[in-house]
Amino acid sequence: MNFNLPILAPSILAANFLTLQSDIEQAIKGGTQWIHCDIMDGHFVPNISYGPGIVKQVSMISEDAFIDVHLMIENPDFYVDEFVHAGADLISVHYEACPHLHRSLQKIKSHGIMSGVAVNPATSLYNIEPILADVDMVVLMSVNPGFGGQSFIEQTYQRLQELVDLRETGEYGFLIQVDGGVNLKNIASVKGAGADVLVAGSSVFKAEDITARVQELSALI
Ligand code: DX5
Ligand code: ZN
């Protein structure tokens, strides 16, 4: 798949679920191609969001939308097939939730979609070094996963640099996604520090004019 980088990936966690379709259509009108879906199970993270049923409906809103599924759940292997059938184009699993991470990534890739690995703010990046050749994207968490609307953890800038260096040294091809607390104030510097895909939830969907906000954020990157 070919993408024009950088990419803005609005997270629908912050959308109004009673007007979800219209919220997403407004984001698409502003130029969004990726839709970030945050799946939370109340075990791996202390919050419950939504499941494959919603993802399927979301994926049917636009044929062109790229469905980026972020699994913040235990035992993600059990649910990969379901999210693929729901229309996922990329599935990210958490390093911290996968005792057999290599197997989990192979399972995702066996469906012919892209695979990602997400790392919590307190996880050393060296833990994922052995699988960096096997992933299409690394999700660098810039908040502790579980909730939208949290503040960006400043330490993320150093971690981004570390990840950029690891990618360069190993000549890897993965994309770098930064997820959590990205807003109008910091999006340009997060991009400047090396992010290819920038997730933005509250800053997109809590805006009065979603289309305009997508355009504003996109202009900054
Ligand atoms: C956090 C989620 C993020 C979050 C982004 O657990 O993975 O995707 O919803 O939302 P904001 O931009 O509000 O931090
Ligand atoms: Zn996310």
How is this structure best described in words?
With 221 residues, the chain is an alpha/beta fold. The chain has a single domain, classed as TIM Barrel, CATH 3.20.20.70. Helices cover 31% and strands 19% of the residues. The protein has 8 helices and 8 strands, in the order βαβαβαβαββαβαβαα. It has helices at 20-29, 52-59, 80-85, 101-109, 156-170, 187-192, 202-205, 210-220; strands at residues 7-10, 34-40, 66-72, 90-94, 114-119, 137-141, 175-179, 197-200. It has an 8-stranded parallel sheet with strand order 1-8-7-6-5-4-3-2. Strand 7 (175-179), helix 6 and strand 8 form a beta-alpha-beta unit. Helix 1 crosses helix 8 (210-220). It is globular, with a radius of gyration of 16 Å. 44% of the residues are buried. The model has no long low-confidence stretch (mean pLDDT 98).
